[in-house]
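Whether sequence alone determines local backbone shape is best considered at the level of individual chains. We regard such an encoding as a compact summary of how the chain folds. The sequence in question and its structure tokens are set out directly beneath this paragraph.
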Amino acid sequence: MAQITSVTSEALQAEVRRLLPSQQGFGEDLQASNVITPIIDLTNVAEGTNVPQYQAQALNFGGITAFDVGNATTTIINTPGFFIVRGVFYSDTTVGPQFNITDGATTKLLFNLRGQNAANNNSDKIYLQFYVFVRAGDSVTCANNNATFNAQGTTQQLADVNGVTTLPTGFTPQ
């Protein structure tokens, strides 16, 4: 005989509200049953993440912000969310671009690029790609204290601070 039991877990209820935003006003308790029920997993569609990663992360005209940092420290991200930073960076053993994240009081190093060829005054070109989560009040900077070599790249927001995927500008999945 089937038995149905109420489940009163705030963590489970919060996850249902996150995964199914249209159900946020639903005031009933979750229920568990001892009956085997076939499940159709619609999680990706409910989360809005049924777009393949290669499409969501595609470089696009309206979704990237370019930076070119030479002999300066420049804030490259100061909006909350998940970002990808891509670029070609030049460095030698004495000077190289540095990426930091700061909350305004404390600065933490993300990457410090150093090359191999300082003796020949010849720079190494390094392609770098990394992901970073920025909270409200945080920022990511690129410090390049060399007038000769520039750090050039782009930043692109992949998701907002709640993890909702940011699609390329003008792209509407069917």
